[in-house]
Amino acid sequence: MFHSPVSATADPSQAPATFDTIVVGNGGLGLSLGLVLARRGQRVAVVGEASRPLAASVAAGAMNGCFGEVTPTLVRSEYGRLKLAMDVRATSLWDQWAQSLIEESDETRIRSATGTIVILNTIGVPGIDSAGYAAIRQAMQDYKEPYEDLEPEDIEWLAPEPKSRPLKAMFIPGEHAVDTPALLRALPAAFTRAGGVLVDAHVDRVVLEGGRTTGVVLRGDGKVLSADNVVLAAGVSSHELLSAVDPEIRDKIPSMVAGGGVSLLVRTENGLIPDSVIRTPNRAFACGLHVVPRGDGVIYLGATNEVLPKPISTAAIGEVNLLLSGIRQMRADLVNGHILKINVGNRPIPLDGYPLLGPAGVDGLWLMTGTYRDGLHQSPMLAEEIAARVLGEPHDTDLDVFTPVRPPLQSMTREEALETAVTHTMAVGVEHDWHLPEDFPPLIEEQFRRSFRQVLDEMDHDFVPPPELLFFVEDEIHDALRRYYDAHR
């Protein structure tokens, strides 16, 4: 039984002014939380610009990736193993979640792929690709997840150029993909039918009174929406909305940088698309090369990752070129396809690399962000978890390690972070198909090692940043790291 439908509020001035909970951010995470709370009978507003500028969700390939995302560094740390456990739990919820969205919206399908094929090809480097492939297999064996080894030449759709051919391949039948546009249509439809209110506006700031949150102020007309609880699920922009919080608390919450990503929607020349996701292991500071079927002769080709202090809104030519050069690894005749759309999005990356989930140091204020590449996949699980916390119900206390007000979560030693940064940096050159005299790569590698070590030494002697923050050298990011570290002396 549905509540009476409520349409999105095109004019924020016409929105109700009082709610039980306000969710700031209308991407996959924010809408999922709003839906769970609305189903529970809460008066909920989800606030965000309808066009979702700069958001991660709109550019996501939306692989229901769990084991396919495993890397050697992930499973070596307790926090990484917890993230994997979260992914496994989220996977178990997606069948029911997708079906409920179909029933509560006008969509006829949410999933766009059946299973995932992981390939190990000749483009990567042993310390990343081969090690990642082995880590994926080991994680599936540990969790008793079924998989099947494939002969690469038997993968029907795959037809790379000879120099990029796969060496190994395996099929993971339990890992699928989501049609992102369908999901982002289904979620608001289900939410409003459950009684929720969509407010098409940008939140200017959070209101604090008497040491607790009382609502938000909208940009433009300055309208105040009141609520007992405010959840910030606005991705990279979430930390900026903490401006009213006491700096002694705010500075102890890791701020976020943007994992700017570019992906392509491509119509193949012959209309052929795979049934499954086809992907490499994660590589070179990114989620590897992957093709996701979208239907009607269209594939999603993704995705790049560049860590930046601020979100991006346009695609750099170099990022597009990297994707276009990657088609040789999947199907050589994709060069005859047509680019339908260039997607640009921004993954939220906390300064210590781990999600921000829970109370933000002020009564009634919560964070639900910083999920990097896991947000859309984990959205059903995190929506249930954050809803339980907001409603004061029992929840999974294992996730409390990701409470936002925290010292930096350290998953690597200084030497491990240094060598990981060097290995991935060199792999960027391989992925770009560089051509150098054979004595140049060792010289370049040693230069990067010296440079990264200098950055580590100058930044801090106690805390260790994630390796990608060494590679993407930005003064603004390094200044933010120093402020965060200083707050936890």
From TrEMBL:
A GO molecular function held by the record: oxidoreductase activity
Keyword Thylakoid: no
UniProt entry keywords in alphabetical sequence: Oxidoreductase
Domain FAD dependent oxidoreductase: 20-389
Database matches in Pfam families: DAO (PF01266)
Domain of life: Bacteria
GO cellular component: cytoplasm
InterPro entries for the chain: FAD-dep_OxRdtase, FAD/NAD-bd_sf
Metal-binding in keyword set: no
Designated name of the protein: Glycine/D-amino acid oxidase
Species whose genome carries this gene: Actinokineospora terrae
